[in-house]
Specification:
Helix content is 50%, strand content 20%. It is of the alpha+beta class.
């Protein structure tokens, strides 16, 4: 990003933070608060509105949307879960010698919120904050498994309308896999997101409700039946320990 682009992004964020002091404001008021020319403020407001972060209410005033509130709630949940999950994830990585991920739903998408990276030379690396495909992989299936059955198809349809990659197995088979994973609480995937990657995941619950998944993605060249079974069992056990620590 160029310096000009970074400055523009910073100004847009400053404008978003302006709503902390003034919950409803006109573009002119936002312009004066942030100290940017009125045309620039109009441009930032249009961008934030397009992203669903602000909305026009009345008399030319704008306010934050519930999406911002949802992001704040998600951040608070993620922080507490990470604090609890960290030592368990480290122990699981030490046991399996693989990278361990915490995946949580953020704004309707599966997102990596924490990771413990394997120490082996050949390892998989995921960035914290990275979105996973909505319709491919063990963790996205488990997150969708937390939805009521009648809402799962609409989630798939909405994801496809957004341009998400379709499930490799087809929609009907994908929904059948989601139901199977919902009943057992764990899932595996092989080359669904990236070629040469095998992964096991298990559901993490807080007070009985699914809030995320614990995932162990591995290079497929290291996986045989014995190691796959060991990793599945270890991931399931660790997800259960985290869930118990969270009150489930």
């Amino acid at each position: 990003m160029t310096k000009a682009g970074a400055d523009s992004a910073r100004r847009a964020i400053d404008l978003l933070f302006a709503f902390e002091r003034k919950p409803m404001a006109t573009v002119r008021e936002l312009s004066e608060h942030v100290g940017v020319p009125l045309p620039s403020a109009h441009r930032y407001v249009a961008m934030l509105k397009e992203m669903g972060l602000i909305e026009e209410s009345r008399h030319g005033q704008y306010r934050l949307t519930m999406r911002v509130a949802a992001l704040g709630q998600a951040a608070r949940r993620a922080t507490s879960v990470i604090d609890v999950a960290q030592p368990h994830m480290q122990a699981l990585s030490d046991e399996t010698h693989e990278t361990i991920l915490l995946i949580q739903p953020i704004a309707g998408l599966p997102v990596c919120t924490h990771r413990i990276e394997a120490q082996q030379r050949l390892r998989l690396s995921f960035e914290v904050g990275q979105h996973l495909p909505a319709l491919r992989g063990a963790s996205p299936r488990l997150l969708l498994a937390g939805f009521p059955e009648e809402d799962r198809r609409k989630y798939v349809e909405d994801a496809l309308e957004r341009g998400e990659q379709p499930p490799r197995s087809g929609v009907e088979e994908f929904l059948a896999e989601v139901q199977r994973d919902a009943e057992r609480g764990w899932a595996v995937s092989s080359a669904e997101i990236d070629e040469g990657v095998w992964s096991a995941a298990a559901t993490i619950r807080s007070e009985g409700k699914p809030i995320g998944t614990l995932s162990a993605p591995c290079p497929a060249v290291r996986i045989n039946d014995d190691k796959a079974g060991m990793i599945i069992e270890s991931v399931r056990r660790t997800a259960g320990e985290i869930s118990a620590a969270l009150g489930s």
